[in-house]
Task: inverse folding
Protein backbone atom coordinates (compact mmCIF):
# COMPACT_ATOMS: atom_id res chain seq x y z
CA UNK A 1 0.00 0.00 0.00
CA UNK A 2 1.31 3.36 -0.97
CA UNK A 3 0.71 5.54 2.04
CA UNK A 4 3.07 7.01 4.59
CA UNK A 5 0.57 8.39 7.09
CA UNK A 6 -3.12 8.23 7.87
CA UNK A 7 -3.49 11.62 6.19
CA UNK A 8 -2.65 9.89 2.89
CA UNK A 9 -5.60 7.51 3.20
CA UNK A 10 -8.57 8.49 1.03
CA UNK A 11 -10.93 6.87 3.54
CA UNK A 12 -9.59 9.16 6.31
CA UNK A 13 -9.87 12.23 4.05
CA UNK A 14 -13.44 11.40 3.07
CA UNK A 15 -14.31 10.61 6.68
CA UNK A 16 -13.07 14.05 7.71
CA UNK A 17 -15.12 15.73 4.97
CA UNK A 18 -18.19 13.75 6.04
CA UNK A 19 -17.69 14.79 9.67
CA UNK A 20 -17.39 18.45 8.64
CA UNK A 21 -20.56 18.16 6.54
CA UNK A 22 -22.41 16.59 9.48
CA UNK A 23 -21.22 19.34 11.84
CA UNK A 24 -22.42 22.03 9.40
CA UNK A 25 -25.77 20.39 8.67
CA UNK A 26 -26.56 19.72 12.33
CA UNK A 27 -25.20 23.05 13.63
CA UNK A 28 -28.70 24.46 14.03
CA UNK A 29 -30.46 21.24 15.00
CA UNK A 30 -33.06 22.04 17.63
CA UNK A 31 -32.53 18.70 19.38
CA UNK A 32 -29.18 19.04 21.12
CA UNK A 33 -29.01 15.36 22.12
CA UNK A 34 -29.38 14.24 18.51
CA UNK A 35 -27.00 16.94 17.32
CA UNK A 36 -24.33 15.80 19.77
CA UNK A 37 -24.73 12.09 19.06
CA UNK A 38 -24.73 12.45 15.26
CA UNK A 39 -21.69 14.69 15.36
CA UNK A 40 -19.83 12.33 17.71
CA UNK A 41 -20.54 9.32 15.50
CA UNK A 42 -19.33 11.18 12.41
CA UNK A 43 -16.18 12.35 14.18
CA UNK A 44 -15.46 8.82 15.37
CA UNK A 45 -14.99 7.44 11.85
CA UNK A 46 -11.81 9.30 10.80
CA UNK A 47 -10.59 9.50 14.41
CA UNK A 48 -10.48 5.71 14.72
CA UNK A 49 -8.73 5.36 11.37
CA UNK A 50 -6.06 7.78 12.58
CA UNK A 51 -5.71 6.22 16.02
CA UNK A 52 -5.41 2.71 14.63
CA UNK A 53 -2.85 3.75 12.04
CA UNK A 54 -0.74 5.49 14.67
CA UNK A 55 -0.45 2.23 16.65
CA UNK A 56 2.20 1.21 14.06
CA UNK A 57 0.92 -2.35 13.93
CA UNK A 58 -1.35 -3.97 11.37
CA UNK A 59 -2.66 -6.23 14.13
CA UNK A 60 -3.83 -3.15 16.07
CA UNK A 61 -4.89 -1.17 12.99
CA UNK A 62 -7.54 -3.69 11.90
CA UNK A 63 -9.72 -3.46 15.06
CA UNK A 64 -9.73 0.33 14.80
CA UNK A 65 -10.85 0.10 11.17
CA UNK A 66 -13.69 -2.14 12.35
CA UNK A 67 -14.58 0.36 15.10
CA UNK A 68 -14.60 3.14 12.48
CA UNK A 69 -16.91 1.03 10.31
CA UNK A 70 -19.17 0.45 13.32
CA UNK A 71 -19.28 4.19 13.93
CA UNK A 72 -20.39 4.59 10.33
CA UNK A 73 -23.32 2.25 11.05
CA UNK A 74 -24.11 4.23 14.18
CA UNK A 75 -24.03 7.45 12.15
CA UNK A 76 -26.38 6.04 9.51
CA UNK A 77 -28.80 4.84 12.18
CA UNK A 78 -28.93 8.31 13.70
CA UNK A 79 -29.35 9.87 10.26
CA UNK A 80 -32.32 7.58 9.56
CA UNK A 81 -33.86 8.57 12.88
CA UNK A 82 -33.08 12.27 12.28
CA UNK A 83 -34.88 12.19 8.96
CA UNK A 84 -38.22 11.25 10.57
CA UNK A 85 -38.71 14.48 12.56
CA UNK A 86 -37.18 16.50 9.68
CA UNK A 87 -33.93 17.39 11.45
CA UNK A 88 -32.35 17.29 7.99
CA UNK A 89 -33.55 17.62 4.42
CA UNK A 90 -34.00 14.67 2.07
CA UNK A 91 -31.16 15.98 -0.11
CA UNK A 92 -28.75 16.18 2.84
CA UNK A 93 -29.97 12.83 4.14
CA UNK A 94 -29.40 11.08 0.81
CA UNK A 95 -25.96 12.61 0.39
CA UNK A 96 -24.79 11.79 3.93
CA UNK A 97 -26.17 8.24 3.81
CA UNK A 98 -24.56 7.61 0.43
CA UNK A 99 -21.18 8.92 1.51
CA UNK A 100 -21.34 6.98 4.76
CA UNK A 101 -22.06 3.74 2.90
CA UNK A 102 -19.16 4.34 0.52
CA UNK A 103 -16.79 5.04 3.41
CA UNK A 104 -17.99 1.90 5.15
CA UNK A 105 -17.19 -0.15 2.05
CA UNK A 106 -13.76 1.48 1.84
CA UNK A 107 -13.08 0.66 5.49
CA UNK A 108 -14.04 -2.95 4.89
CA UNK A 109 -11.74 -3.17 1.88
CA UNK A 110 -8.86 -1.52 3.72
CA UNK A 111 -9.29 -3.86 6.67
CA UNK A 112 -9.14 -6.88 4.36
CA UNK A 113 -6.07 -5.52 2.56
CA UNK A 114 -4.23 -4.84 5.82
CA UNK A 115 -5.12 -8.33 7.07
CA UNK A 116 -3.76 -9.91 3.88
CA UNK A 117 -0.59 -7.87 4.19
CA UNK A 118 -0.21 -9.04 7.79
CA UNK A 119 -0.67 -12.68 6.78
CA UNK A 120 1.95 -12.28 4.07
CA UNK A 121 4.45 -10.83 6.53
CA UNK A 122 3.82 -13.51 9.13
CA UNK A 123 4.40 -16.25 6.55
CA UNK A 124 7.77 -14.69 5.81
CA UNK A 125 8.54 -14.53 9.53
CA UNK A 126 8.03 -10.78 9.91
CA UNK A 127 5.14 -9.49 11.98
Result:
Amino acid sequence: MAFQSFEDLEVWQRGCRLAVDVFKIFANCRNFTMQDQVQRAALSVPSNVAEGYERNSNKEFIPFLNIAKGSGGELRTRLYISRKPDFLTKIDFDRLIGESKEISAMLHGLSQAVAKRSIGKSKRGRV
Notes: The radius of gyration is 16 Å. DSSP finds four helices and no strands in the chain.
